[in-house]
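re: ur question from earlier - yeah i can do the single chain one, its not a big deal. heres the input i used so u can compare w yours
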Amino acid sequence: MTFHPWRAVASVLAAFSIALLGACGGGDDDAETLNKPTAYPDVTDTSHSTVHAANIFEGFFTAKSQHTAAPMVDFFAPRPDPVIYVDAGLGVTWPSQDALLQVWSGASFANGPKTALSYPTRVIGDAHSAVIEFVDTPDLLGSEFRFISSITFHGNGKIVRWVDYWDGRSSGVHLPIGTLGPYPTDFHDNVVNASTRITQASTSLQSALASGDATAASALFAPDALYEDMALHTRLVGKVQINRYLTRAIAQLPHGTGSTLLHISGSDQGGGFEFGVHPAAAPLVRGIAALELDDAGLITRFTVIYDSYQFTDAKYDALVELAAE
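and the output i got, formated as tokens:
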């Protein structure tokens, strides 16, 4: 199937809203029954999510998989409250409720086949802010896209900020920075509603990575932690392996030495942070890391994604080889 960038813009935006499902309500700590999806596969990992947040996303992705625009937009803060939705891979911003309604009402999304699905695979956080993983199937976007997204809600549990990240190599879609216009400069990074624990964990890890301190970064992981790089298809198990890998790779990773902290989302159970890449990673601009935490605040799972298609093949190959021992 031929990939059409503008069609992808509409579809990807629709996918973004999934993560923002927390718009259903402000209270997030009440005991609830976990909803089971019927419109898409029941595969969501909610082990580090409140039940309320998980149910919000189930509702949103149901509307998205059923291609109904108005219910999707209802999860966002109402006018005149400011909202923003950004695809960090495409470099496209939807800055209002009307913009979201327009793109989700477009024929390429609204008239998609029943097999054009979007569904979450992991929810981390609560109805204040969260990080999610989700999938857009090939019938929706022309290729399979796997996202990690940051979602922030305001005090009434409505979405005010959503930013999507994906890897072009994994999706087979190469859109050089600038293809769809100037890259956004305003991601509303100052709109934050994260817990103290995820803020501390994210700040400590990003600071260690940015300073090139592999030992300090590794110390923040639990003994049997999992480290995943979705762009490099790298998987490491255990603090010992993670330390060896970071010792080799930290100076060259986009989220390593010289990176900057941009935004934090999540709860005491986990969430993640968006980062600005080090200058040598240009033209890549941003990425995101998802974190799961144990009761002591140690990282049990770290998953990072960024658009590795912004690198030359030679640079990408060199990064992949860093995982070899």
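The longest helix spans residues 5-19. not sure if urs matches, ping me
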